[in-house]
Amino acid sequence: MRKVLLGIDGGGTKTHACLVDLEGNILATAANGAANWERIGVEAVQSSLEEIINLVCTKAGINRSEIVDSTFALAGIDWEEDKILLAPVVSALGLENRCELINDSFAALFAGIPQGIGCVSIAGTGGKSAGRTANKSVQTMGMELGEGGGAGQLVGNALDLIARAHHGIIEKSALYLELPLAVGFSDPTSFFTAIARERVHVDEDLAPLIFDLAAKGDALAIEAITIVARQHAIDIQGIVHQLDFQGAEIQLIRAGGLHTAANPIFDQVFEKTIRESLPSIRMRVLDVSPVFGAVMHSAHRHFDYVAPEFISTLETAAKKVEI
Questions:
Q1: What is the pLDDT of residues 211-235, one digit of tens each?
Q2: Which residues, 6+ apart, have CB-to-CB distance to 1 below 8 Å?
Q3: Which member of 41, 118, 135, 312 has the greatest number of CB atoms within 10 A?
Q4: What is the bridge-based pairing of β-strands 26-32 and 15-21?
Q5: Contact yes or no for 71/100 (Cβ under 8 A)
Q6: pLDDT per residue over 244-264, tens digit each?
Q7: Half-sphere exposure for 105 (CA within 13 Å, toward CB)
Q8: Are 190 and 210 in contact (CB under 8 A)?
């Protein structure tokens, strides 16, 4: 009987799974749809996880009984009661006492920092900031209350700004016409009427438009990006304030579409704001899938000590695998 570790990283639109042996060799990976219970419900999450576990086990040629430990890093695990809510799902999947539920932001943290000590800023479809020391972990609420909200908040900022322009409070820019046009309205008044009467909904798919206009110098697009970038940076300042890194160098992992887009405005505002209070922080953009962080987290659960050889083997393989 083989012994393997399972990592799952589940978000609002897609889920990744990875199986590795106890030496850190990747045996199989798989992908399927959403696994955020807040969006699709608990029953659908269970079905999605059942499907992806069967798929990755079949690809690796193992039985589920050979999984000695696992980590499910899922969007929507924001509070302790969420873990209680999903505990029956873990039991139904046959992994009770062999699985831990964590928020998906911590998967990105462990993917970038194998020891899991540091901070992570997620700015993707939504937003999340988290941090961890050997003794404590903290995270933002994931509610866009007092925190950055990723591409969704970026689009919300843009909508608010063009509404201000519509009211004559600030100057109009190309964004004032281009954003309504992108969803089929040539007249901003008709656009806002449709918004008010809930006939149209703007979402994070409009983020690339805002980035493109900002690159052309559009003042309102630049302001929308600046607001969300600054907020995500402030969130990390708050996370560090709650943790005691005891004078050690703080590492920060950046993940999600806004961080990986290489947008100079977002990057410059984010980095400048953070360094105002954390001048020596070391930050980098995550360059592997967060699912490998879920695997690393499960390794820390299983082993008393995660050997450097395990970490090196997994990290090397992770950079060669596309899921």
A1: 999 999 999 999 999 999 999 999 9
A2: 65, 66
A3: 118
A4: antiparallel
A5: yes
A6: 998 889 999 999 999 999 999
A7: 29
A8: no
Q: Are 159 and 176 in contact (CB under 8 A)?
A: no
Distance CA 235, CA 240 (A): 9
Average pLDDT, whole number, for the chain? Answer: 96
Q: CA–CA separation, 38 vs 268, rounded Å? A: 33
Cα 295 to the chain's mean position, in Å? 16
Task: Say what the pTM is.
Answer: 0.92
| Angle (CA) 33 37 43, round 5° | 85
Domain spans of the chain?
Answer: 4-115+288-318
Q: What is the mean pLDDT of residues 120-139?
A: 95
pLDDT of residue 199: 95
Cα atoms in the 13 Å half-sphere on the side-chain side of 18: 31
Third-level CATH fold of 4-115+288-318: Nucleotidyltransferase; domain 5 (3.30.420)
Q: What's the rounded Cα separation, in Å, for the pair 150 and 159? A: 14
Which strands sit side by side in the sheet containing 118-123, from one edge to the other?
137-139, 127-132, 118-123, 251-255, 282-285
Q: Please give the Cα distance from 104 to 27 (Å, whole number).
A: 22
The amino acid at residue 90 is V
CB 261 within 8 A of CB 211: yes
CA atoms within 13 A on the CB side of 74: 30
